Amino acid sequence: MKLIQQLHVDCEVDMKERYKFIVITDVGSTMTKAVLVGYQDQSLKVLGISHAETTVEVPLNDVKIGVLKAIRELETATGIRLLGSSAENTLSFRDEVGYLTTSSAGGGLQILVIGLTLFDSASSGKRAAYGAGGIILDTFALNDKRKAVDQMLAMRNQHPDLVLICGGTDGGAITGVLRLVEILRLANPAPKFNEAGLIPAIYAGNVEASSLIQKMISAYFDLHILPNLRPSPVLENLKPTQDMIQKLFMENVMEKAPGYTELKQTVNAEILPTPVGVMQCLKLLSHDVPKNTLAVDIGGATTDVFTILEGVSQRTVSANLGMSYSALNVLKEYGAEKLMQLLPESFPEQQVRNYIGNKTINPTSVPVNEWELRLEHALAKAAIELALVQHQEMHYNTRKIGFLDLMKQGLRDKFETQFEFQREDDKLYFYGSDIDIMLGSGGIFANVPKPEQAMMILIDSLKPKGVTELWLDKSFCSPHIGILSTFDHDSAQAMLHSDLIEPLAIHVSPLNEKAPKKDKVLLQVEIDGKRSVLCPDNFVYYPGAAAKRKIRIIPGKEVLLGNIKEAVTLETDLPLILDTRQNVAGNLKMVDQAMGLYGDEPIPEFKHVPAASQESTGNFVREIYLPYKGEVYATQGQKTRPDDIMASNPYDPARLYIVQPFGSVPSISSEYIGKNLLIRQGDKVDFDQVIARLPHPNHTETQTGKQMSFHSPVRGKVEFIDPKTGLVVMSEIQDYTGKPVKINVASQLKVKPNRIGTYLLRNVGDYVYQGDTIARKLDSSSSLGRTHIVAPSTGTLTTIDKISGEVTICFQSQPHEYHAQVFGEVLQANEQDVQIEYQATRIEAKLGFGKETGGKLVVLTDSLIVNADELHGTVVATGNVSDLGMLESLADAGINGLICDNIDEMILCDYLKTEPGVINTGEESLPFSLIIRSGFASPIDDPGGNSNYTRYAGQYVYLNPHTRLRAGVIRPTINIIRDKA
After folding, report:
1. Secondary element (H or E) of residue 978
2. Which of 103, 135, 106, 86 is nearest to 34 (CA)?
3. How many other CB atoms are found less than 10 A from the CB of residue 508?
4. What is the CATH number of the domain that holds 122?
5. Distance CA 181, CA 176 (A)
6. Residue 714, pLDDT score
7. Among 205, 247, 213, 245, which Cα is nearest to 229's?
8. In what order do the strands lie in the sheet with 426-431?
9. What is the rounded distance in angstroms from the CA atom of residue 328 to the CA atom of residue 780?
């Protein structure tokens, strides 16, 4: 860090002496914004701002192209030549031009967190990731309520930039985190951009497990062992992990994004993650204005929330709450009914849903009329409100006030929640009304037609209380100023207020009882000698004045303005908002009329946009990757047909056992372990097999004498051994039998057959592993005080016979089979991977759901299904889905897949039986797979469209519905296959 700081000092001098102009870009998930600043009399001035779409999707797939477009727009707007080359795709600058950039392209630094429990080590891991500028894709823990196979599939589908493993406190439990690490090893997720090489992984957990984890996954990940970020239950040590996360991001992740290599070679300093740049800007602002600040930065994929309270800065990134890629997830998390309350009654839910769906799959689209603008503002309010809740849950505890505290604190605790947070060793407390400044940043704020609209987005989402200043990052340049401040602090600070940050208004909202009487006086306001009285559910807006005016606000009886009980006097020329609303969503008309927010523009008519014809013909490769080792039947050079089985996973992932033979022996040496551990890696161990010799309790390891035997409590294959502790990791041996195995429970427990239900611990249909206890009875004659019956084999408990007293266990094989799906030829086949080359015309679509499938293409001529018997096993194409009944009829007919140009979002939800949410699809269990080629529209909006497919009728079609709308965007494909077989 000292070296980086010195580089910053050197660069600050170099920037001023060498460069006349500095170009600063922020490469966002959907838009790239460029700012040109120039030195004039040793100070910087903003000379121009431009933006362009971020180019991370095929066919461009190169962030440099979007950067170049934004810089060329700067050149046109300012008349200043910046680029050193006129070549179309060459990024170079003239000698007098410096270049800096921040980036969150495609969603920024994406991290998987693995911890022991969600609320302890995993929670510390999340704080470390957030503090380093990361976005958490998913958090895995023993208590996250997912099965091992579900955790593994989730890990594999995420494509993270980095994996953070935090395994409990030093000296604490390690078995749980080792199980999760083994699942990670089996899942072996691919990098975001499918580059060759290993995903970086950090282990910052229990030091006792370090060497074993090194052995388990160092061949699969670029593993870094760091000090435990949770060394004890009451202590966190986040900084080493945060520093390493940023280092790995810069060195191993950022440059792997398409086009980043050249970008990195061109900049004059390290590329910073956008959130780090924003935080630097806020620190600069809080240094200039030492007030408690809450800022939100809302983007296409994420919403960042920052707080600086009493000098302590905190940040969270809500990875799936944004205005484009994440719009459908905002709808899901917030709820359609609640979102509709933020809109006038004239807005039909059906059309609102379709607009949000189209925004998700077309992330660079912008509102073209006031109706769409208002809808996006409501969506922004929902996203920010959800993100603020996540921020509070992550960093602040709601303090439960006891009776004595309540007496001491007085009136305030009756009305307002108190929050607790940590600064070093001190516990600090604050109330929401202690926040002095609320700042809005991001494209939705920078592009508001009226500043009053930005005010209401902040007010309705953050719900300020007391007296609060509302500020706007008017040009969405906070990340640019943040990175600039690390090199030219004084100039960046001067530019904040003069060019970039704009105070919007002062908002006053009293703290009062939840349901005060309608005629209760909450506020009295005196402006220029005129007094007004406000009761509950009032909203008054005073526009800004030409000069400062004196304003006196008098709270009513038992009413607070934050921690102030007396009158407040302000002198300001800013607009003033007096807000006593009890329900933000219940007074839309009153607020609209008071502030003149929106016009009465009617709902626009839908104009159908035909599906884009993005087709390519050639040779393609279908890869079948088994999530864990199974059986592969394919051979190199084999000709394939769609129904051919190429591979299968006959069983679920093998269960993992952690055995500690020497766990009861204190201070035992590794030499003793090496001599007396009787098994080696790769050995198969049976139940009760002697696997280690232990010293007698009355002897040390160096004394001769009688030794004790340690018998294995499980049956399995030895996967790993830690030579320092003797800890053994074994995997289940999956030699299951399909023959029913009967256990006479009544006889073994010595009870009547009709009484066995009293002692059984499992029910019919339960899956049990060999060795699991299935029945138990207290037994004074037993040395353990009870009698156990364990399952002699693995399988499903199929019957409980209370006449014979027997229980039957049978392994019912349900293998997961992988079909070729195409006419083609096997290029290669190994123990976990099969690649098949095929010839096809490929059509890219927008969104897909379900598993890979295929069949003969049938084109529907109208919305009625004719000759349903002929549809079995086919892929059906149509222009538009008429209703849910159409989908149900197609399911009854047994089709494999459906291609449609458009579908109503509500119909899609009914078919999926859930809101789509985060778009990382392709494994849903559905009656048939569904691919949407164009977007979302009401059935009456688009009556046709099936002419797109008639030329392919009768041909075999392979559908790959997998869709990923964030970093490393993946779109579903329709493949019309040429028969090579």
Report:
1. none
2. 103
3. 26
4. 3.40.50.280
5. 9
6. 85
7. 205
8. 397-398, 418-423, 426-431
9. 61
Give strand pairing partners of 306. 295, 315
Tokens of 822: 């195409």
The answer to whether 293 touches 285, Cβ cutoff 8 Å, is yes
What's the half-sphere exposure (Cβ side, CA atoms, 13 Å) at 274? 34
Other beta carbons less than 10 A from residue 260's beta carbon? 21
Last residue of a domain, one of 810, 832, 851: 810
Residue 531 is assigned to a structural domain of this protein: no
pLDDT value at position 864?
45
Strand positions, DSSP E, 779-904: 786-790, 795-801, 806-810, 816-819, 824-829, 833-844, 847-849, 853-859, 875-880, 897-903
* Two structure tokens written together for 538: 């009032």
Residues 421 and 306 in one domain: yes
CATH code, 96: 3.30.420.40
pTM of the model: 0.78
Structure tokens belonging to residue 614: 């993005």
Which pLDDT belongs to residue 315?
A: 80
* pLDDT lower than 50: segments of the chain: 1-13, 400-409, 864, 942-944, 980-981
Q: CB pairs under 8 A, 24+ apart, for 881-885?
A: 881/907, 881/939, 882/939, 883/907, 883/939, 884/910, 884/911
Q: If we measure between CA atoms, which residue out of 548, 507, 478, 455 comes closest to residue 304?
A: 478
Q: How many CA atoms lie within 13 A of 359 on its CB side?
A: 28
Kindly report the CATH number assigned to the domain that includes residue 890. 3.50.30
Provide the phi-psi class of 128: left if phi over 0, else alpha when psi is between -120 and 50, else beta. Answer: alpha
Question: In Å, how far are 147, 184, 192 from 138, measured between CA atoms?
Answer: 15, 13, 14
Distance (Å, rounded) from C-alpha 720 to C-alpha 216?
7
| Boundary (domain end) residue, out of 89, 105, 121 | 105
Question: In terms of residue numbers, what domain contains 856?
Answer: 615-625+823-977
Chain centroid offset of residue 821 CA: 31
- Which residues, listed in sequence order, are joined to residue 797 by a DSSP beta bridge? 809
- What are the structure tokens assigned to 104, written together? 């969150």
Is residue 472 helix, strand or coil?
A: strand
| 927-943: burial string, b at 16+ Cβ within 10 Å, e else | bbbbbbbbbbbbbebbe
Q: CA–CA separation, 443 vs 29, rounded Å?
A: 11
Which residues fall within 8 angstroms of residue 783, CB to CB, at 6 or more apart?
A: none
Distance CA 426, CA 521 (A): 39
